[in-house]
């Protein structure tokens, strides 16, 4: 299913999400197309909603180069791992864990092949969805030090929040009306 059809088909109670999606994605004026669509793709993957992920990947393939699409997927993948690990370090009171090496490979953080700030913004979006304060703080600091404005950071987080909420609505509708939602 196409992403626009999926959004347009959201239930009445999700009208605010439709309106926000329209203003933040369809009428985007804050992010470059690569920043926007990489954020949509990485965020959709982070929702773990198959319908939304499929539609976002399909649209992302039209909007992004193959390399940028792979990088957005890579940001979602590596942050899926890192957010769990670093959220654990943040939440535990045992400080010894922070002194031990992570021993997790994160080579894609250097080899993604797209604008460094864009990859960091996508990582920030996924970290916000996954609720990892340590990763949010780290990625926000990196992009701010490299000249990305606070307005751009917030635009990425707004897109991530809308995509995440859409995924939650689709999940709820699948449970409420399993026969009405195509998987």
UniProtKB/TrEMBL annotation:
Give the Carboxymuconolactone decarboxylase-like domain ranges. 101-177
The active site annotation covers 132, 135
An example Gene Ontology molecular-function term: peroxiredoxin activity
EC annotation?
Answer: 1.11.1.28
InterPro entries in the cross-refs: AhpD, AhpD-like, AhpD_core, CMD-like
Any one Pfam family match given in the protein's UniProt record, by short name: CMD
Some GO term, biological process aspect, for this entry: which one?
response to oxidative stress
- Which EC class is the enzyme in? oxidoreductase
Superkingdom of this protein's organism: Bacteria
Q: Where in the chain are disulfide-linked cysteines found? A: 132-135
Keywords of this entry: Antioxidant, Disulfide bond, Oxidoreductase, Peroxidase, Redox-active center
Its UniProt entry gives the catalysed reaction(s) as: N(6)-[(R)-dihydrolipoyl]-L-lysyl-[lipoyl-carrier protein] + a hydroperoxide = N(6)-[(R)-lipoyl]-L-lysyl-[lipoyl-carrier protein] + an alcohol + H2O
What family does the database annotate? Belongs to the AhpD family.
Q: Which PANTHER family match?
A: ALKYL HYDROPEROXIDE REDUCTASE AHPD
Q: What does this protein do?
A: Antioxidant protein with alkyl hydroperoxidase activity. Required for the reduction of the AhpC active site cysteine residues and for the regeneration of the AhpC enzyme activity.
Q: What is this protein called?
A: Alkyl hydroperoxide reductase AhpD
Native species of this protein? Alloacidobacterium dinghuense
């Amino acid at each position: 299913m196409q992403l626009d059809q999926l959004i347009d088909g959201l239930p009445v109670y999700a009208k605010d999400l439709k309106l926000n999606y329209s203003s933040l994605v369809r009428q985007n004026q804050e992010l470059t197309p690569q920043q926007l669509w990489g954020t949509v793709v990485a965020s959709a993957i982070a929702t773990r909603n198959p319908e939304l992920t499929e539609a976002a990947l399909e649209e992302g393939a039209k909007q992004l180069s193959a390399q940028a699409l792979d990088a957005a997927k890579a940001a979602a993948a590596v942050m899926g791992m890192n957010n769990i690990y670093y959220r654990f370090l943040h939440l535990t009171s045992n400080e010894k864990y922070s002194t031990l090496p992570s021993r997790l490979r994160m080579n894609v953080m250097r080899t993604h092949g797209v604008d460094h700030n864009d990859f960091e913004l996508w990582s920030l979006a996924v970290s916000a969805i996954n609720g990892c304060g340590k990763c949010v703080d780290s990625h926000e600091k990196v992009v701010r030090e490299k000249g990305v404005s606070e307005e751009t950071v917030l635009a990425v987080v707004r897109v991530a929040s809308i995509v995440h909420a859409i995924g939650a609505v689709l999940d709820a509708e699948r449970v409420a009306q399993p026969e009405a939602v195509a998987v």
